[in-house]
Design brief:
By secondary structure, the chain is mainly α. The protein is about 60% helix and about 0% strand. About 15% of the residues are buried.
Length: about 270
Amino acid sequence: MVDPSKVDISKIPQEARYQIFEYVRREKRVKPRDVGVSPSYFYKIRRKEKPVSDRLLAKLLEFLSLDELRELIGPTVKARELIITKNGHLDYTTIAEILKIIEEESRKDPFLKSLIIDVARKWIEEARDLVHTYTIKPEHVKKFKKLIADRSKDTIDQHLRYLNKALKDLNWELSPDKLSEYIIELKSEEGEHVARHVSKALKLFIKLVLKDPVLYNSFKVIRPKELSLKELLTLGQVREIARRIAHLGAKAYFVLLAETGLRPGDSIRPYS
């Protein structure tokens, strides 16, 4: 039988209520005393001189199965409105139960399974058009700081500095379109290095705190182009540079780098 508490009775129009009343009266042989009303009121409802009140409708629903109710209301009430609680929100418990039944039945019925897959495919396509927008709050930044606490102080300060810059520029609201446009504009207006630090901080923040793949993949970390010589120096040019270095220590260091291919940051281990 239908549980009246699971149905938003206010959504069912009078025409559907009269149909329910007539069906219950005829098929279930319900009398006025069975639903707690007087015979005169019962008779006036039959003639549609009085409306079916919410209280009476709740009593009538107790005599119906869910299938009977759906058949009676037909197109007069949206299917969604049958699983709405009285506070106007979707009754997720009921939805979960319905989905579970559908899942079990689809294992037995290939046609139903195919239908579900088609519907799911449509939902996935529609989901791609959804806008992922997040309003960022100070609590999010505090959480981010806590999650990167195991890194060096300089790294933490750098991530927080560039993250706060981005959030301020974006008015504390992140969405895929805003992020992709912002990084491109930042690279153009403030340079590749600033854009790189900002994009790295945002990527890490989204990964650790928001955990939204759509937002995370909406932009790439900027990688500045490394400066490189267009042409390699000839041996004669290297000798000329060395000849012009006046300081003996600097000259020896330059020759060492030129001869060995070491970089200034490389360490030299003694031969053993």
